[in-house]
Amino acid sequence: MELLYKSTRSNSEPVTASKAILKGLADDGGLFVPMSLPKLSISLEQLAKMDYKQTAYEVMKLFLTDFTEEELKNCINNAYDEKFDTSAIAPIVKADGAYYLELFHGATIAFKDMALSILPHLMTTAAKKNNVKNDIVILTATSGDTGKAALAGFADVKGTKIIVFYPKNGVSAVQEKQMVTQKGDNTFVVGIKGNFDDAQSGVKAIFGDKELAAQLDSAGFQFSSANSINIGRLVPQVVYYVYAYAQLLAKGEIQDGEKINVVVPTGNFGNILAAFYAKNMGIPIEKLICASNDNKVLYDFFETGCYDRNRDFILTTSPSMDILISSNLERLIYRIAGNDAEKNAEFMKALTSEGKYEITGEMKAQLKDFYGNYATEAETADVIKEVYSKANYVLDTHTAVAAKVYEKYKADTKDDTKTVIASTASPYKFSRSVMSAIDSKYEAVEDFDLIDELTKISKVPEPNAIKEIRTAKILHDTVCEVGEMKDVVKKFLGV
Ligand SMILES: *Cc1c(COP(=O)(O)O)cnc(C)c1O
Q: Which residue range is the domain that position 443 belongs to?
């Protein structure tokens, strides 16, 4: 049966999966959502015998129904290969009473690789299927990790160009170095004088600019998105929650059908939404625990039913979660509004004009699968130190936010259901904050010496992604004001 996708903001004609991936964002500014969530077509027991690629096929075929088996398997094989430093792709590590699902074994050592190593293949396959002749220009706003993962995925992919905007003063030293040293004639990297929300809003405005789209079309280009607003990002993320459950079952850690909880360090709400989709597909997940840092707009939302971005934007040691407008929440709002595009569009309009909206009691009642909490900067640092001293396991700052929120959840609820924590980045990516948390003596140590120290204490070998940037040349140095983003895009493309 064909699964079609519709916009969260109007009742326009549904489109195929490949069209939704190509477009990224719907014409009305809404996000594409599947008309229904498919159910897994094989048993958990069968899934427990599968490797990552086989699991990916079983999950993704249910969402991307207009891709042939051969097309989809090609995409999967090209994505989950030696770019990952383990054949498990997403291994599970048991430490300090929880199961850490390590999603950082790809090329850029953050979980964004899980989806962005396959998105370019899905996109070029979708372009072929739909006879697209234009070059596809990927326009991306990043809070640090998406940018590099998208650059790495799309670099030198024929028929594509990629332009990445990042907050000039809002990413870690390693994140910035990774991006500005990106090779590939089709790659462009720009620092903006603003924060992530500015970058994301700027990109959305460029997407919505019909005049620019027409200009681009006559020059042989069309935009698409590599952000998690693209359904082609979300679908591959469902896979590792299915895989995690199956792995726990295969290892005898859980019984068939036993419920687990999932904790996700959250920013744009893409990763946790994927877990929600996995639950709806039939994976026995009890609670979806949404972990925020000091930018706790989501925690407040789960508490009160009011989403309010009117507050200071706080720069934290978990920069990939420094977000006040969690774009993917819109997909959930649409769903709990009874798939009512008009109602959802009103909320989103209020978010743009007043910076907030309040859902109804009836909608809030449908959020009982979710639990929200947050970790302060001090709590995040403490938990890094604590897990390291207890279990000899080094968490990155984002994963540490999740670990702390899990502690709070247990204290709040006394729930002892087995729990998977999404481990979203390698500690190497945030070595400065991680090492300072473990011992203040590291504060005076130089960046790359610090990485050597991390290798010593963690006993985890230095990833290639870090080795590469030690000597890499800086290839991108464009910096612009928020208001200049559109001009920068036009200049890069020569239109
Ligand atoms: C992007 C990112 C997050 C947040 O994920 P969302 O899908 O945006 O909620 C958390 N941790 C790391 C390391 C990230 O890169």
A: 92-109+232-460
